[in-house]
Amino acid sequence: MKYMLLIQAATGDVEPQCTFEDWMAYDKQVKDAGIWSAGESLADLVTATTVKVDRDGKRTVTDGPYAETREVLGGFYVVDVPDLDVALDWAARCPGARDGSVVVRPVADFSA
After folding, report:
1. I want to staple 96 with a disulfide (CB 3.0 to 4.6 A). Which of 7, 10, 33, 85 is the partner?
2. How many angstroms separate the CA atoms of 51 and 57, rounded?
3. Full-model pTM
């Protein structure tokens, strides 16, 4: 079953708990385990653009996400593992779990 690991990076004055090397090691572990399906790191938050459409269909575009929380989506992995417990284990190993959090969600399968 596929699960998406959404890496919620901390913002503000939080001192990083992991290094670039930690991320590279985790990336290698996921790929070496044969569970990697997809994954990307997102560009800096200042490059984001938000689109909203009101009930009348009017589109509003603004610079930035204007997050209401102290965490922002920093990237993701999609892993193919047997069950939620294994996905949670991989999420706990993710360096992002030390600096922010990792949200684990099953990927919907509409092919059935």
Report:
1. 7
2. 12
3. 0.83
Q: Which two tokens stand for residue 18?
A: 């992991």
Which residues, 6+ apart, have CB-to-CB distance to 28 below 8 Å? none
Q: Which residue has the tokens 């990927």?
A: 107
d(CA 71, CA 50): 16
Cβ atoms of residues 77 and 36 within 8 Å: yes
Q: DSSP of 50-82, one letter per residue?
A: EEEE-TT--EEEEES---SSSEEEEEEEEEE-S
Residue in the structure block whose two tokens are 């503000």 = 12
pLDDT in tens, 60-75: 998 876 656 667 888 9
Question: By the 8 A CB rule, do 23 and 98 touch?
Answer: no
